[in-house]
Amino acid sequence: MTPETKFRELEEWSSIVALSVIAMIDEEYDVQIKGDEMRSANTIADLFNIVKSKK
Amino acid sequence: MAFLAFDNIKVAGLSACVPKDVVETSSSYKWGGGEHFIETTGVERHREAKEKICTSDLCISATEKLLQQLQWDKNSIDVLLFVTQTPDYILPATSCIIQDRLGLSQNTYTLDISLGCSGWVYGMSVLASLLEKGCAKRGLLLCGDTTSKTKSPQDKSTYCLFGDAGTATALEFDENASPIYFDMHTDGSGANAIIIEDGGYRNPVNDSSFKMREKGADVILNNLQCYLDGMSVFSFGISKAPKSVKSLLEHFSLNKEDIDVFTFHQANLFMNEKIRTKLGLPSGKVPYGLKDFGNTSSASIPLTLVVEKQQALQAERLKHIACGFGVGLSWGSIYFETDRIVVPDLVEI
What we know:
The complex is a heterodimer of chains A (about 55) and B (about 350). Helices cover about 60% and strands about 0% of the residues of chain A.
């Protein structure tokens, strides 16, 4: 896994994993991710930047 | 922060009514992975109202049974509130029709309130405020939805999740009653997260309203059906519901350990369990009605109490916290007590 990893292409990826990532971001950073933001993210770096922009 | 506190309000009774027709998730979830859906959402079956059954019909049946067991004279009802997003008509307000159908006096104050998952908590705050001074002494809060009528059969995100139900909550002016507390919130920037786009006056019904549109994989619906952005709502729910419960506890100096029952809006098991664990609540204090009834919008809190806590409500003195969160976006929490209240068996029509 690197910042460039396209997480949607991972075999384990599913809609429940997406929710788990949202829950992790909520718990770790107290940041609320919107559905559109999650859908627009493709790489781990994208997620990082979304969280950073909302902190 | 909208913190509210009311004295002199006694919760006298709770009842609920569901349609007879049961839809099993195992036989109606047609997208594959039905077992996984059940595991995640916790919804094994739900009730669906036939074409001729409206939310008002469910609420009226629940109310008739409750009034009978409370032995309340219909002329003694001063206030009737109806919380729904599936009214009988665009106009007149359904609460006016219910006043007549229940045979309540023409001196009744009636009001429709358009809210969903937060609706019971909001309705309780409105009714409590109307009764607090004792000018009006008895009030009924009717909450429910026939969400099945707004779901697309081609939308896997909502089709097996929502169920239909109607409920009635009876409140009474009583100077010996313990206080009721609220913590209420709104964030209209999330209005698009749960929305029926057409049919109001922003987008009146037109030919294109009926066009089926693909909004995502296996999410196909028209603009007169309910769209749900599950990810946004999940993110909202797990963040805001625990914060609201915490701020209610803190603001009113309530001790979490003293609360007997925490009843949350029944969104889905995955989301509700996240909320429960974030608050560190033992599972024994958090009832679930999702398995048999799904997400029933504003009916979910009173319905869950009726089906899961009937005996305790009838026999014990209980301290409650309940929290509703969803469409609006709108959310809020309530603290209230019950002391051996009237709870009829679940009504089916």
